[in-house]
Amino acid sequence: MTAVRLDRSSWPAARDRSARIVHVGLGNFSRAHQAWYTARADETGEWGIAAFTGRHGDLAGRLARQGGLYTLIERGPVTDRLTVIDALCFARPGADLAGLVQAIAAPQTALVTLTVTEAGYRPVATSRSGDAEPLPSVPTRLARGLDARRRAAAGPLAVISCDNLHNNGSVLRARTLEAAEAIDPALIGWIESQVAFVTTSVDRITPRASDSDRAVVQRELHRIDEAVVVSEPFSDWVLCGEFPAGRPKWEDAGARFVSQIEPWELRKLWLLNGGHSLLAYVGLLRGHQTVAAAVADRDISLALDEFWDLVVRHLPATDLDLDLPAYRRQLRERFVNARIGYPLEQIAGDGLDKLRNRIVPVIEAALAAGESAEPAVRVIRAWAQWLIGDASRLRTDQNAELLRSALDSRGADAQARGLLELLAPGLFTMTTTISEVGQ
Hints:
Blueprint: E1 19-26, H1 28-32, H2 34-41, E2 48-53, H3 58-64, E3 70-75, E4 80-85, E5 88-92, H4 97-105, E6 111-114, H5 138-152, E7 157-161, H6 168-183, H7 185-194, E8 195-203, H8 211-221, E9 229-231, E10 236-240, E11 256-257, H9 262-285, H10 291-295, H11 298-314, H12 324-335, H13 344-348, H14 351-358, H15 360-368, H16 374-389, H17 400-407, H18 412-423, H19 427-430
Parallel strand pairs: 1-2, 1-6, 2-5, 3-9, 6-7, 7-8, 10-11
Antiparallel strand pairs: 3-4, 8-10
């Protein structure tokens, strides 16, 4: 066998693309989802992505050494499919605020996309990018860029939230307008007339890559990839809104453009993301490490079905055919894909923001209908038990200070009450089963 020399110089030259999309929050999911859709839909090279990282600034350096290229491993139940993604024009650390402002203000920029997780929509300066000092909040950074665009008379654009947040486009719009008022009240009117905020529903399971995944790229493509991304084969992207400066033909890559997104959004947010949270906290408490292992546990599987039954009863009525039975079957097929190895610890992180969006609304809907919310309360209970059991789990949580204040209370019951009040004021007393959360 002929030896193959593995080095970083073996990457091919990246395709020349025009940077017309600015992305904030470059990470595994954005590279497996939005960048993947863009690479597939943009055959002419018109829609390159100028990307800025989120929490991990070192990713920008790793991608720079590869000319912005990276390998996506689509991991099915039996085989892998490897694709080199060439949608990125460049990647820079999230701390490069001047570069982000300049990119948003550039006349050729038509779209700003974001994957900053639920915590990124808070209007306070808590986000970090591997640096000692906190960065301004994501809405503030966006407002600064839009202010520079206004001053440069660079024209309208669309801002597209790609996070698991109910009505994400409207939430981002409200937060951005709040930040704009602090910068210059005149900026508010310009944003309202020139900037479209697009609401989306996004879906693709994307675990962290491992050394074995990097070894797959070395073996199959004969190159070292420091920025490998792993995802399931399934993907979904539903968008609702206007695009005043144009967009890629993402529909050619399978995206859907709709006039009513809430049914699609809540179907995914409550069933998939809510189901993931149940599997994560209940599964970790029972000693499981991955989604596939948790869903194979008979008791957890039954709890998942009970939770999904509750969700289906309280999803808002719609004339759209969401085919919920088929969607549930499809979710189970995705969850049992053991080759993905999706770690429950990864899902469990930043639970406060996640549960506020994917579990608390289900509880509220059930209680408003006079029904027991126990299948959803079970998720909250498991989250509280998981945190109370080991406070070291807060090391990387973006709400660590708030959660520690609740956990400083004496006794599990008091700690549980504090945690639930952080989730939603009055949540502790809104249910009859919630008092058991600390037990």
